[in-house]
Amino acid sequence: MRSETMNIHAGERMDRAYGAISPPVYMTSTFAFDDIGKTKGYDYSRTSNPTRKILEDTMAQLEGGKAGFAFATGMAAETTVLHLLKTGDHVICGDDVYGGTYRLLENVMRHFGIETTFLRLDNRRKIEEAIRPNTRMLWLETPSNPLLNITDIEMTVDVAKKHKLLTVIDNTFATPYFQRPIDLGVDLVVHSTTKYLNGHCDVVGGAVITTTKELTERVQYLLNAMGTCASPFDCWLVLRGIETLHLRMNHHEHNAFAVAEYLSRNPAVKKVYYPGLASHSGHEIARRQMKGFGGMVSFELKGGQEAAYSFLRKITLFILAESLGGPTSLASHPATMTHASMPKEHREKCCITDGLVRLSVGLENTEDILDDLRQALG
Ligand SMILES: *Cc1c(COP(=O)(O)O)cnc(C)c1O
Asked: Is 98 one of the annotated active-site residues of the chain?
């Protein structure tokens, strides 16, 4: 099956009882045993649930992995994956990852004796220099949030494999429709399904896709032990979203390209971050490892914070809000919103300035989107 068909047919969606085309939502905490020690495959919904299983199998198939797991949120997925580590382990992580990932590693996992080095993963030697005897995991996010930096997945995986590090990629921005990191050697993929996979701003969810039997058993064990799993109804919503993933991603990209090109020509704009632009530093790598460039565009205004605030107060179609990946165009101010938990020095070091605006370009008419930007920047 090709990607678009998989979005609609992956997993065992057909209902065996009545032939329902839309998969049933098994809203049940527990399942009857046929006899002592004998079930129909399910015993308790924390451990596994038939609706969740369809989403999990779908995610595994879309990413080309061994197994998938669905979590209550993207952060629940990340927290679970980080519990593959133990006290004394060291992590190397990209320096401009999602603010919540930074917060989890720096303000939570550190208290459990897991230390993280944050650095730009753009150079083999730099990564190798950061590796310590106790380094176990390499965490990357590409395209990154909010600057859409592109990391060369193959190069990073190559370094990690040489040093026997587990590679984890946050594939939220690209989705498996535009990027399949497991094909490039990554060990674990994490997602916030809250974003493009669900795609309708009506659920929070996460996913993990594994590549080996050992990782599959370990993640299943942790999910059950930690209770970080997703509810059946949320899984159903994400599954419904995935059916139109390809249509949505293509249109998000179409609109994002128009926005990026418009902003590049606007004199009030200092810099545009969109990997689809030839001027973007990661453009060539993105072309090699991605099938599309996605729907996120960030830009820095010449007028700094004041100009950014003015823009965000003037927009009318775009809504000032966190999150991304839904049909509605959203605008956010990373410095005070998604990345507020990152210390200012760290933020500035990786160019998340006070004049930076992040756009989640939605599915509205392209001209209406551009009209709103024109009036808000004018
Ligand atoms: C939103 C997001 C997360 C966190 O996911 P939640 O569902 O909000 O918990 C992680 N990574 C990226 C790239 C995100 O955009």
From this structure: yes
